[in-house]
Design goal:
Blueprint: H1 4-15, E1 25-29, E2 32-51, E3 61-66, E4 72-82, E5 85-95, E6 119-129, E7 133-141, H2 146-150, E8 182-189, E9 196-203, E10 230-239, E11 243-256, E12 269-282, E13 285-295, E14 316-327, E15 334-345, E16 359-371, E17 376-388, E18 397-409
Antiparallel strand pairs: 1-2, 2-3, 2-4, 2-18, 4-5, 5-6, 6-7, 7-8, 8-9, 9-10, 10-11, 11-12, 12-13, 13-14, 14-15, 15-16, 16-17, 17-18
Length: 410
């Protein structure tokens, strides 16, 4: 039983695009080996809102059957070796289990008429050799912030952001780390030199929601703003033994430009950020510590803070989380406690909000993750999320969520 939760986490890593994970179903196909795997998860979530998160005339509670942080998914991958190269590909299809968003524009949100969608988050190929590393081309999890989400215990559960439906909750996104997200990329991953390795990537230029192009078009629709590529990378050291662990340091940068030559959110500026993290494990105990800092990383003063370049301003953004877990010997049940916070300061955004309040999202999460079988895990979580100065004004509230459900990997 002790190894069952580790196998489940390996399945989660597979669904999130890491290169090393146990395959689900393996099929020989000539020179190729085809792997099929994925997960299905569903949770009952009960969320109680207080303070300014309550909406006048509406119940202050939300009861939902929904997917957790990791969307349900099925992935198809293949690998072979040709001409002294290891070659591989991966396609993964993600979806939620709830019927859709009750606030859908077409007025639907129930049953088969709901607006739940299929999202192809992974479509990439890799080629290389252990002697010199590998190249990845296509869409996959970003490098910056990737280790933060893969180390988050709520990857098997819900975390913050429950009660609204959709294809996933947020885990600790915007309440401890920035979302690595799924991006088009050309990245290089080095060999492992006695535990040391690094990765660097050229990523597709993401439009910034606050910028408008020379034609005055609405955000995210003008090609003028897609002329500056993004860059990201990390270095890491990993070791095994009775006391195993990993440390890493990452960086991301991208210029946002509407080609007007102006400065600030109405024109051009650069987003920069770094993160640093460490995790250690000994005798069933695990500890994770993580911190990030940067300018113009998010700046969105609501619960979606933590999504890269969302708000279109050069705000000061920082945060982090600390997490402790213990796995009960012979039983395999993992018990975890974590605290995280994300902040966004609008002082430098030039949007008439100078002197506005600093937005904060902080949360405590308690989780129990029990491997009923090597494929099936039962999950119970309690999340206490506090939001301060939503919209950069004195607008505070709390969301307290109880989550009960299961996640199965195949």
């Amino acid at each position: 039983m002790k190894k069952q939760l580790s196998m489940a986490v390996a399945g989660a890593v597979l669904a999130l695009g890491a290169s090393a994970a146990n395959a689900g179903i393996t099929i020989p196909a000539g020179d190729w080996t085809i792997d099929i795997g994925g997960n299905v998860n569903a949770f009952y979530t009960h969320t109680k809102y207080s303070g300014d998160l309550k909406v006048a005339g509406i119940d202050d509670k939300a009861n939902v059957i929904q997917t957790g942080l990791l969307p349900s998914a099925i992935g198809i991958g293949g690998k072979t070796r040709q001409n002294d190269l290891d070659i591989a590909f991966q396609f993964t299809f993600f979806t939620g289990v709830d019927a859709g968003n009750a606030d859908a524009a077409d007025g639907t949100g129930n049953g088969g008429a709901g607006n739940n969608t299929l999202n192809i988050r992974q479509a990439y190929m890799t080629f290389g050799d252990k002697s010199w590393g590998s190249l990845k081309l296509g869409r996959d999890l970003g490098i910056f912030g990737g280790d933060a989400i893969l180390s988050d215990m709520t990857l098997l559960g819900v975390g913050v952001g429950a009660g609204g439906g959709g294809s996933s909750t947020l885990g600790r996104i915007g309440s401890g780390y920035m979302y690595a997200d799924w991006v088009g990329q050309i990245s290089y991953w080095s060999p492992n030199w006695d535990g040391f390795s690094f990765a660097v990537g050229l990523r597709e230029p993401w439009t910034n929601a606050g910028l408008t192009g020379t034609s005055g078009s609405v955000a995210n629709s003008n090609a003028d703003r897609r002329s500056d590529m993004g860059f990201e990378g990390k270095v890491q050291y990993e070791w095994a033994g009775d006391v195993g662990g990993k440390v890493w340091l990452g960086y991301i940068t991208q210029k946002h430009d509407d080609n007007t030559g102006a400065a600030g959110p109405s024109g051009s500026y650069r987003s920069d950020g770094f993160d640093i993290g460490a995790k250690v494990s000994i005798a069933g105990f695990g500890l994770v510590g993580y911190y990030y800092d940067g300018d113009g990383l998010s700046g969105d003063p609501d619960i979606l803070n933590g999504v890269l370049f969302r708000a279109g301003n050069e705000s000061d953004d920082n945060g982090g989380y600390i997490q402790g877990t213990y796995t009960i010997p012979d039983v395999g049940t993992k018990i975890g406690l974590s605290y995280g916070i994300s902040k966004s300061d609008p002082d430098n955004n030039g949007l008439g909000l100078n002197g506005g309040e600093e937005f904060e999202s902080k949360s405590w999460i308690v989780g129990v993750y029990h491997p009923l079988t090597k494929s099936l895990n039962l999950v119970a979580e309690y999340t206490h999320n506090k939001l301060e100065n939503v919209g950069y004004v004195d607008n505070d509230g709390k969301a307290k969520t109880l989550s009960l459900g299961a996640i199965m990997f195949f």
